[in-house]
Write a structure and sequence with these properties.
The protein is an alpha/beta fold. Helices cover about 35% and strands about 20% of the residues. The protein has a 10-stranded mixed β-sheet with strand order 11-7-5-2-12-1-13-17-23-24, sandwiched between helices. Helix 5 packs across helix 7 and helix 11 runs antiparallel to helix 12. The protein is globular, with a radius of gyration of 23 Å. The protein binds guanosine-5'-diphosphate, 6-O-phosphoryl inosine monophosphate (IMO) and magnesium ion. Guanosine-5'-diphosphate (GDP) binds next to helix 1 and strand 3.
Amino acid sequence: MYFNDDKIIGICGAAWGDEGKGKFTDVFADEAHIIARAQGGCNAGHTVIVGDMKLKLHQVPSGIIYPDKLNVIGNGVVLDPRVLVENEIKNLTAQGISTDNLKISGDAHIIMPWHRIIDRAREWRLAKNKIGTTARGIGPAYADKANRCGIRMNDLYDKKVLTEKIRVIAKEKEALLFGAWKLPVETFAEWMNMTDQLDGLWLKDGKFNVQTIADSYSDWTAKLKNYVTDTKKLINSAIKKNKKILLEGAQGLLLDIDHGTYPFVTSSNCSAGGFATGLGIPPQSIDRIYNILSAYTTRVGAGPFPTELGSEEEISSENGNNKMSFDQSAQLAKTAQDDYTVGKVIRHIAGEFGTTTGRPRRTGWFDAVACSLAAKINGPDVIITKLDVLDVMPKIKICTAYEYTGPETWYNGKTIKSGDKFTAFPTDARILKYCRAAEFIEFEGWNSNITSAEIYDELPTLAKKYLAGIEETTGCNIKLVSVGPKRSQTIIK
Ligand code: GDP
Ligand code: IMO
Ligand code: MG
């Protein structure tokens, strides 16, 4: 139904993450033989809802619920074995889901304790200019990979060699943290304890405890031994046998290290290009990429967001525990006058609170300037999610142009000055931070409940008009529309 004649399909976030990749990986996985992750790590939080069960997955692919499909963590992922063993596999097992069908690349780089500490320490040093990372050690782990001093899954199985590596690397990291960066030992200890109940185990005399780290990693990896394999070989042999393979992206195009709003990005290629390197498959073997885009735009963490409704400061007091009910939100939608309140209605109706960190997500109108990048870099096919969230909105907007309001500067081969209009997305955060959402197309809200619509024609005319507006302003082709978090709430256009 969804694969049609395609053999290899990629699901890519096309904005700043959390577009609904988990839902669609689960939906497509029904027809696939293999589901594979190629990049990112436990910064990702993918939600899968099946019946009454809600799964929150970080590193394990969202096809894990199907016992007859292989789920692969590819070489491009930075893997935290502690999170995998103590959190994900434990939770899945408790929910009655087997992980026997999980395979891990021996070449995947490993998140070590110092990666989390360096992640926090960089943010601490950046202070007001911080990126707002998930503090999962992702950036520092990819940096070590690029710097050729990372530890990979296969390295964890020779304890003597591993202990020696840890001893050498730990010294280097301590010199950086306590020497160059002058991180107070107490802060270090506090962060260590914050990284999920480690109770200072990994510290000794204010330093990394080499032996305990080696022992802990050896314990976890012993538990993972049956999962580790040459995943490149496994997938390429499946390709030869004409098997259907689903590639599950993490994060989103606007967080891509090359194509995103640098430096407010993650540290991997979350664009379609990342699939080939992150799994070791020929790029031409990928038949189709689906961009996942939500019907409004969201962002977690810092960085420019021109169509934002409200601001990071205004939303900081909100959290998932003081969520407004649907009725309260719908009522507020009718009277909302200011941007912050409109954004709050969207956030609370959709439950836009981070799957990984619980942070309130920033919300904004659909940004066609930013989202049109998807058609250029990933290809034109799109799945629109969360359309139902807009059911109660009296008016809905799509941003079609920015106005630059900053100082005169030079960018991409020309001088730009205040008052200049941008219809192509300036990904550089230095420029983007001065871009104001200046031109919008305004749509009438459809003001009805679309969550049980099953076919495209059941959608209200005004909702279809809005979808046509997204296509026209982004150059994308909408193939599927999602009207709720469940598998069944999926409409083929
Ligand atoms: P991912 O990171 O892209 O997998 O997305 P997340 O799982 O972090 O966040 C998406 C959220 O939206 C989850 O809570 C999903 O259950 C939910 N969701 C997905 N599609 C829809 C939809 O069409 N409508 C609504 N209301 N929620 C959706
Ligand atoms: P999924 O796969 C939304 C954001 C962080 C921060 C920036 C860098 O669930 O869509 P990092 O920890 O990666 O160094 O943080 O990227 N970020 C995400 N935002 N969804 C995600 O994943 C994200 N993964 C990272 O908030 O702004
Ligand atoms: Mg997410």
